[in-house]
Amino acid sequence: xxxxxxxxxxxxxxxxxxxxxxxxxxxxxxxxxxxxxxxxxxxxxxxxxxxxxxxxxxxxxxxxxxxxxxxxxxxxxxxxxxxxxxxxxxxxxxxxxxxxxxxxxxxxxxxxxxxxxxxxxxxxxxxxxxxxxxxxxxxxxxxxxxxxxxxxxxxxxxxxxxxxxxxxxxxxxxxxxxxxxxxxxxxxxxxxxxxxxxxxxxxxxxxxxxxxxxxxxxxxxxxxxxxxxxxxxxxxxxxxxxxxxxxxxxxxxxxxxxxxxxxxxxxxxxxxxxxxxxxxxxxxxxxxxxxxxxxxxxxxxxxxx
Length: 305
Hints:
The chain is of the alpha/beta class.
């Protein structure tokens, strides 16, 4: 495996909205990913993980900064060719499986090949082989509604892989699955990685960092921590996050990394990033929701008492 950087972001920022409604989704992110890495991306909701994935997958453009894909500046690639690169080099797997309900499993998997202009028979053969690889060939003629969540995700993975992409972008691929289905999906991703492909996966689950060779931790649109990890072991920082939720005395040891996981009550106060120079309309919106919840609870309490 070469150590060529296939993805290079240089001070990439992404701004949504204008004026008061402005959100800084990515804040001068510089990142280089080599061929054959399995990168896990962690951080609280709204920290910019999905924006980063969309940027890498060319579904979105940077507001500032430069993105090079295979050493080519992406902004110089014409839209049509960019669409082709996206189709042929990148496989997307999402939390919601995005299967088309009126197509069979086989037709869903064959769909990307249709855009390529491949003949129907060859297309179906290739899709069928791919379903075999993910253990779903017996479900070829089922419709998505007849599948369990785990089966649907395996089919979605088969569809993402049918073009033989070199890069897999997985956004919370096990987010809607129970633990046995999650294991199945992760083993599939691990297998894809073993074959020399690059996998970039957003996850909320520290356990899943066992599959990664490198983990990025994001907060407020920045990468605040980037560590190489051993396959089979939970990433050190992710481990601390697990402990943080049970034992709050270790806070100082890792200087606010626990703040990355908003799942941990009470840790959100210590922000690892200096908030001084950030437009922050996002947090305003975020804080409003829990407040409503508690007032409802308080009302219930009043009523019941």
